[in-house]
Amino acid sequence: EFYEPNALMMEEEGAVIAGLLVGLNVIDANLCMKGEDLDSQVGVIDFSMYLKDGGHSSKSAEGDGQITAILDQKNYVEELNRHLSASVNNLQAKVDALEKSNTKLTEELAVANNRIITLQEDVERVKEESSYQLESRKASSTDGQVLGETRKQLKEETQLRLDVERELEVQIGMKQEMELSMKMLEKDICEKQDALVELRQQLEDLRAINQQISHKSQSADASSKQKSEAIARLEEKINQMSGTIKQLENRCKQAERERDLALEANRLFKQDFGDKIESLQVEVEQLYRQRYGLEQELRRERELKREQHLSAASRASASTKIKPSESPPKLLSESAPTQRESGQSQGEQEEKTSLSSS
């Protein structure tokens, strides 16, 4: 819908052109503006804008993109180097051909010089002959025909000499042009050699950058492996922690259930035994009151017994010891109620402890 019916992309070759454009990486639009020579490659190309190291330790995706870009630049530089080497070889072949043609021209120039020298000798000889013929013509008139023939020969020889001089001038001009072209070719060759040196330096820089990138990629791979191992260990720990968390959640649920059951049981226990506890508390208070009364009675009885004992002892010391056998039974009879009272107090303490424990 974006093309006319007679467009190139609407034909069968359009798919082929699109497939070729997919693999296109670099278009060289650098033109050599020296005079009218637009077909030759540029001598020096500044790759400093493309070869800057922008910090490859940031991210792996950016590092891969920069590596691919640098590899494309490296391939482009190698292709340029091949083109330049081919152009240098062509120029070397042209220089060899020009040297051969120059040697041929020098040989032809030497032959032309020899021919000019011989022609000059012939002209001098003809002049001498003409002078001699003029002198002999004065002597005799029969030599007029010979003089005319010599004049014709002289004209022909002068014409030949002029032609040879013209050829010599043409050859000299061609020689000068060849020398100029040789100088230009030598200058171009020097420039090409300088460009080749710079390109080799750039290739060495690219190789160093590639080595650095490879080292960085290896270190990045090692760090990624370590990170993946750490991630695997952390995932295992996370799985273990999730398992323990699930177990703790189950335990918490069980504890909540047990707590609810205990609260319910406590509530039921309170409901069941609330009245009993109140009645027991009332009984305990009554028992405390009884115990207090009994303790006071016991104190009074002990005081009375002490007084009786003291009075009996004083009477026994004052008497003449008429009846000594009657005192021990009294002591036994006195000690018996004390034992009974101590047993009653122990029973009360046991009741108190049982009530407090309940």
TrEMBL record:
Biased amino acid composition, Basic and acidic residues: 349-358
Keyword Glycoprotein found: no
Tagged with keyword Coiled coil: yes
Region span, Disordered: 303-358
Compositionally biased intervals (Low complexity): 328-347
SUPFAM superfamilies in the cross-refs: RUN domain-like (SSF140741)
Pfam families: RUN
Alphabetized Gene3D superfamilies for the sequence: 1.20.5.170, 1.20.58.900
Alphabetical keyword list: Coiled coil
Domain RUN: 1-36
Coiled coil: 81-129
The protein's name: Protein rufy3
Organism (species): Ilyodon furcidens (goldbreast splitfin)
